[in-house]
Amino acid sequence: MPPKGKTxxxxxxAAAPAAVPVEELFSTLQRHVKxxxxxxxxxxxxxxLAASPGDEDALRxxxxxxxxxxxxxxxxxxxxxxxxxxxxxxxxxxxxxxxxRQNKLNEALEALQSMEKTAIILQLxxxxxxxxxxxxxxxxxxxxxRKLKIDSLDMKTNMIxxxxxxxxxxxxxxxxxxxxxKPSSSFELAYNSACSLIEKKQYSDAxxxxxxxxxxGQETLMEDDILDDEMESELAxxxxxxxxxxxxxxxxxxxxQAYSDVVARKLADASSVAVATNNLIALKGGKDVSDGLxxxxxxxxxxxxxxxxxxxxxxKSNLFPRxxxxxxxxxxxxxxxxNKLDQxxxxxxxxxxxxxxxxxxxxxxxxxxVRAKNVQKAEEALANFAEQAGDRAGPVxxxxxxxxxxxxxxxxxxxxxxxxxxxxxxxxxxATLAGLLDRAGDPAAAAAVLxxxxxxxxxxxxxxLAALVRASAWLNPEKAAGYxxxxxxxxxxxxxxxxxxxxxxxxxxxxxxxPPEEKKKKMKKRKRKTRFPKGFDPANPGPPPxxxxxxxxxxxxxxxxxxxxxxHQVRGSQxxxxxxxxxxxxxxxxxxxxxxxxxxxxxxAGRGKSRKKARS
Length: 616
Description:
Serine Threonine Protein Phosphatase 5, Tetratricopeptide repeat; extended; mainly alpha; two-stranded antiparallel sheet
């Protein structure tokens, strides 16, 4: 049995590391903050909290560092954890900001309501309202910030953007003067100024402003030593907006190329790529439906579990509601062009529940019903929306009138057109409404519409009055005469003999007006200077030219035809050979050509002449 080994003694317990003083940890924390090393800031803050639990400064440093490092979920978890522990520290602003970054806009706005309205709280509230699309309330917040006299270029830039989105582009120039800023102050301001020009339909000026914004942006970013790819990504919104202006100006080839480059290279931010993709599909129309659907499926996807559609990551929080609505609308239209009615109906049904107050969704729903050949449902859907929309029902009523008119429902079309606000006295609308009522078998209502329109016109159009005279002459000649008296007298009309016109009309002749009384001015004949050939001297003309120089040579008097030489003519049958000529000297006769050669020469010389039949 082998001897037992001796047990080794255990090493002494390792001494615990000496605790780092809190002051040293804060010095390390400050060093990482200056170096913008946010992950290290969060780790050192945890060490401080381990040594001094609940330290408010350490918590604040950790939360801000996590936000700066885009770790929004961790920052919100830290805030909620400390609140659950009963911490008295106030991190309400950071919580609202985290909710804003998570696109939980309503929760973020609710979190700000109980806070004191300081400048930083107002700026965050304005940003949230801007994302929610509540532009008027956003502008009011910026007006409050303006009264606080905050000298921040970013705040002023955001205020200009809010004005444009609120539909107050005419106020942009005046506001910029009041804020003492110019479009050249930054490329963001130049971009916003271009957007205001687009809203005012000054597309040429907008294009020049966008080019200026891109130049200012390149100069600014080059000073910051930004790489080319990062610079292109930063200036991508300007590139997409410039392509949009070119599209509005009819420069489709340039816009198509710009959109395609942005989509293909994918160097821009996600929202710019999405806008470029949507505009590219709209520009192509129905040329490549399958490719358009494939690209939109990368932007919008259906959640099978929840049964609704969602945008891809990075787009849900970066696209505005109107931009999302445009993408949804284009996808539905492409599905209709691809005859995928079930998918289109599925998406429209979800949109109707998600955005019940959207006129675009109501129009899409009507388009699906019309494509399914169910016009009555389309009319009912548009009518229901119009009753709830109030003043916003104008476009919907116009589409309902168009659908009903095409389907032959004249009464429904007339009813819809009559409800459109602001069109009662428009000449084209009045004429269309009167025509629909007449087609529906209600000429009295048609006449009432025309009378109402005439009463609202200070100076009725001549064409409308003439049409009224022509239409009323069949039913009410007295009213037609009253309309005729409102027409201005035409020049030369008193000289027309009405009786003669009626007689000629009865005989099938064209009406002839009486000759005008004005004397015709005699046209003076202009004398043209005689032009001579180059080098010709009229003083010394020389011998007169031959008067027969323009006639063919055979027709001239001096022509003499040439006589034919018949001495060498060969007589005899076809193919005969002339005898060789005899010359002096014996045996010096040259050999004649072969028979075949002579025959070929004769055939060549005899082309074009009439052939005689060979005698038998």
